[in-house]
Amino acid sequence: MLARLLHLEGIDVTVFEGETAPNYRSQGGTLDLHTDTGLAAMKAAQLWDEFLKYARYDGQYLAIVDKDLDHLFVRHPGNGKEIAGESPEIDRSRLRQILTESVPEGMIRWGRRLKKVEGKALVFEDATETGFDLIVGADGAWSKTRQAVDPNLQPQYVGVGMYHLTIPDAEETAPETCKLVNRGSLFAHSEGQRLTVQQMGDGSLDVHVTFRRDDPDWMKEEKCGIDSTNLDQVKKELLQKDFSGWCPELKDAISSAEGPCVPRSHHILPIGTHWEHVDGLTLIGDAAHLMTPYAGEGVNLALEDAMLLAKAIVNAANGPNTLDEEVRQFESNMFVRAKKVQQLSDNLCKDWLFTPGAPRSDASYRPSLRMDNSQAPLISNNRRDSEAEFEDEDLSSEIGIAQPKSDRPGLFVLALTFAAGISGLLFGYDTGVISATLVSIGTSLSNRSLTSLDKSIITSSTSLFALLISPFSSVLADKLGRKRVMIYADILFLGGALIQAMSNSVLVMTIGRCIVGSAVGAASFVVPLYIAELAPASHRGRLVTLNSVFITGGQVVAYVVGWLFSAFGSKATAWRWMVGLGGLPAAIQFAVVLFMPETPRWLIKEGRMNDARHVIQKVNGSSHSFDIDEVMREIELEAREEDLAQNSRPGDRSFLAGWKLLFSEGKHRRALAIACGLQGLQQLCGFNSLMYYSATIFKIVGFSNPTLTSLTVAVTNFIFTIVALGLIDRIGRRRILLYTIPIMTVGLLLSAFGFSFIDLSASTITTRAEGTGSAGHGGVAATIILISIMLYVASYATGLGNVPWMQSELFPLSVRSKGSGLATATNWGANFVIGLTFLPLMDLLSPSWTFVLYAIVCVAGYVMIWRIYPETAGLSLEAATALLEHGWGVR
């Protein structure tokens, strides 16, 4: 894999292989490649199509049984490719074939048996090879390269022995065993023994018979009393001793086996293996982190090693870091990744083979952060009463899975989230307060009434400056820190609010709005980033989504404030208090943020390790069991991988390189089209025109207290935003849009229908149906408009108000930042257009036709979503981005 990846990047590489040919020995059974590791590496190596030729999605069947054939767990295969949670099986020999055939002939030098490594020289039995910039030891459990890296790193025996057996032509020679395996895998266990049977692509069954043995040399004839390579003697020994108490159906898997018979002992490197970096040398795969096979992660981890090391080497080739600096960083990150999997595999080994009463008495599989849930079933409690068979989704309720801890986030994290969320409240407040302000200003600005153009400029200037400032926020956040950008945003919020409150002309008012827009642009980027980087991983999603709740909550507060001042305040100064009060939350947040910590990610990036350690400790709290050094290394890994992804293209590291990558590949262009299309639709459907001008609309149609009436819009938006948080993952992104956009369209058309009955004159409002109407009550048409707008807002908040912000799911890591940034800029640009054109359109086309225009946009958006937006709910980021690999991914 490493050779393939480096070859694609034009880097010279030579592979020295000790075996004389690709098929020199059996490669073992099947394995499942996992989404974020093995499958990601295959795609990075441009071998995905080749992999699909041999991938066996039907091989995902898994049955876990005890020695009496009581089924403890059954997982059935999915219905298609790249479904959430699916990890297709592939024969190890086929995977080896794909990889060896993917490099040019001659790159692999077969039959070169390594004796030792001296400096940067490889000493073989027949010659010595020199002239390497980097030697990578991928030479397995008994690595000779490892001895040069650290002679003290020696494999340790874990007390487990194993025979590898085969049943060829299994459907004819062992039909009953084939039925049990069902083209997938069968895991059978009792205390001290394990039997694994897997269906191979050629129809044979691969059988691994595992048992406890105290002596690592147990297979020697003087130790075991038999010839451990003699199949007949081995089968007799196993059936009469270790597996004598097992049911006949399972013992048949042993008795039906034919040669060859391969004995093995399981060895591991210590959990958390690490070494001091040696210039010019490194290790990957089993050479770096040898473990037992029970987690099913060894090959996946090795492929991920190759993928990340290739990125490090490519990055070094393009500067500015040296090769050894890049490799040193790779090793540091690998130690963190490997430790988790080593610990998982060790736990499983103990659960399966060393726990009294296993497998029923303890967890037979433990969930892993690196494994899909479907890859990590967990058997628990003491169900001895009856046989049970369960689908994945019923497992937790039926057999008592010990679910991962899901406690609530600590008070410290909640306090930081709420403090940072004040920026969202300010954003929402500004969006909502302008509605009441525009109907209250009167002639206070420039000693005249505001024209439609004045109102449009005052309103849209905020969006324009948010659009202009937002792209620079990421640069400032990286250079100055997330916390400092929030402080600067608060200063802008406060200054903009005061300028608006004291303004006496349209120009000064617009300047104040521009300053507030700059604050909105900075805060809308940095606050979700701050929360995401600070929050513990188990609570990150929920805490980040709270920002949306703060925004809609701020709109509710704005309408309440607007109504109170309109109803009870002085007409001359009420609007000044409305906009001026926006500075109060900013001042409070400014005072609080001064005492808030910076995010650990930024601190580590700046080399402030002690400060980062303190923040991590405080965020996780004393009640959590975690390795703080591991958490810090994970953060380093995240930052490093992001940097590697952005600089992985040889020969072009200019500012434009990332943008070229975004537009040069079809899958990236498709992701960009969807993300920008959704963000544009979110604004061009006209929603924010209602938020900005709802009081103006309700005044036109005849409500006596338009500001109070507007409060219903804000409350509806707030309530259904909360509703959306519980539906967006359960129903799915695509489906929720296809359900709600038609309702939005109906709401807009009903509004247009209602407006058609209202006669708009210079001084009075009458309804065509009634001849004359009360401007104080609005009549039936006004009620229709209010109800239809509430219907529109409810459906918008449930779907289109939230789904576009899932845009990062569509982009691979290498272009995620730029793609998401461009999509966000599309949102602000469309927001500016809507704010600027709404009132002129009302004058030019009439309210009815303006709402019809927005309805047409919704219909066009529905067609777009139906044709090109795939369902991403429940998929990992890798699986979601893979949907756009060869098309739009719509099924």
UniProtKB/TrEMBL annotation:
Gene Ontology CC: membrane
GO biological process, one term: myo-inositol import across plasma membrane
Entry superkingdom: Eukaryota
PROSITE patterns in the record: MFS, SUGAR_TRANSPORT_1
Transmembrane segments: 411-429, 457-478, 485-502, 508-531, 543-565, 577-596, 707-729, 736-758, 778-800, 821-842, 848-869
One Gene Ontology term of the molecular function aspect: oxidoreductase activity
UniProt membrane topology term: Multi-pass membrane protein
Family statement: Belongs to the major facilitator superfamily. Sugar transporter (TC 2.A.1.1) family.
Compartments reported by the entry: Membrane
This protein's name: Major facilitator superfamily (MFS) profile domain-containing protein
Reactions the enzyme catalyzes: myo-inositol(out) + H(+)(out) = myo-inositol(in) + H(+)(in)
